Amino acid sequence: MRYLASSLCTLVLGAGVLFGIAGTASATAQSAMAKQDTVTAGQCVGGGGFVDQDGTSPTGLRCLGGQFDGIPVTLGQ
User: Fold this and answer.
1) Is residue 52 within 8 Å of residue 61, measured between CB atoms?
2) Bridge partners of 61?
3) Are residues 48 and 64 in contact, defined by beta-carbon separation less than 8 angstroms?
4) Domain locations in the chain?
5) pTM above the 0.70 mark?
6) Which of 18, 59, 60, 70 is 20 to 30 Å apart from 3, CA to CA?
């Protein structure tokens, strides 16, 4: 019984470390992408957003919603 409890604790701790590291890497990647100055229209749509006209954006377009929410959009590649 003691062996079973010890094995279970080891499994839970191992899974926590594995998913904790994966979660941190994912959050870091997302924050790096969110710090971009502009995104293309394709990136905006691919990230789950949509392109909308915005008079306050330096490009006149802004990505709304999704991964790149609020980032100015360029029509270039």
Assistant:
1) yes
2) 53
3) no
4) 1-35, 36-77
5) no
6) 18
Structure tokens at 32: 């790096």
For residue 43, pLDDT beyond 70 = yes
Place of tokens 């701790």: 13
Q: Three-class SS of residue 29?
A: helix
How many Cβ atoms are within 10 Å of 76's Cβ, its own excluded? Answer: 8
DSSP result, 31-67? HHHHT-S-EEHHHHHHTT-EEEE-TTSTTSEEEESST
Instruction: List, in order, residues 6 or more apart from 66 with CB less than 8 Å away.
Output: 44, 47, 48, 49, 50
Other CB atoms within a 10 A radius of the CB of residue 42 amount to: 12
Angular region, 45: left φ>0, alpha ψ -120 to 50, beta rest: alpha
Tokens representing 37 are 């100055």
